[in-house]
Amino acid sequence: MYLKFYDEDAVYTQVIFDQFKKSFSLSSSEGIFLECEKYLELDNEYNPQDYCFEIFYASALNRENDIFQVYDKQEDVRLGWIFPIQSLVSDSHDYADNIYFLKYAYVASYLLLNNIAEENKTNSSEFLKLTDFYPEGAVILVMSKSNCNRIRQFCIWDYIADLFGYGYFCVPGFMDSEKNFHADKRINIRRISKDVTNKIFIEEVFKNLLVQTALLPLAKFHMLYQVIELLIGDIFSYEFIGFSQKIGQDTNNLFDMKDDLQKITGEKYRVKELFHHTYSNLDSVLKEKLMDACNEILKASDKKVKTDAGDSLYSVRCLVFHNYGSIPSEARNILADINLVFEKIVIELLATFHMPESEKGE
Known about the structure:
single chain; about 350 residues; alpha+beta; 5-stranded mixed β-sheet; 10 strands
């Protein structure tokens, strides 16, 4: 850590915990101490070096009682706890006396203090307060390194889609999404499918781009559809390999196979396939909600309604990308309603997408 206030010469470089006072302070090389405000009876049983953390933001969440244990759903391994930083500077929430939370609160406080690296940014005060250095709405995810190591090739960003679905974002911003609130104080997050390629782009979508487009329904729809295009690109690659093998096995019917090639190159076909169990495991109720929302804007635009979720989404895609001006102005707000369901669909697709051979090998 490194902290130098605007109006004094001392440079604070060390975090110290007083076991008797159960509170933190910062010290300088000259032996000057700055106490941190104390709200909780912290328990220093855990070694902060055994933990790591990430900062998130939440627009709908961020109440002091939004304190959850976080589990890897597939492995049923507890990764750690996630809670607003505000919970560390208050004793008025339900977990203020929880012995397990107080252990994680100690670790979180140490990690946050040790993470401070500021110079000449603020005036000094009698006591240091964490929230002077972290934005309002900031949330900390504290993870046990030993538990994370139980998961092969663990990377927290493999869980970014589900974290987004629970209302946690990597940058501050307003989101109009319907989030998954759980009263049981436990959230179960899934890694994106191992069959999903170009994970860097997916990270960018959920880390930044969806937050940036939240207030622009047309832009958000376009961004969500980029993920669809990524997945149907993988479907094309898989089916084209199968088509090529078929040609090698039956060279006498090449002309007849042109229809098969034309089919797999069609985007509409691949979107419909994506929504079926061959490539994903989408909830039927969720698909029906998307179809109904898409049909609403199709009907308002005098377009033919569809009876298949993938077909209806593709029709809206064509309408939005190629004929947006034909949508009545009073019907364009329907796109925001579509996005609420579409976002959930994309998250489910990323978690359940699979190639047929992977399914057979399991």
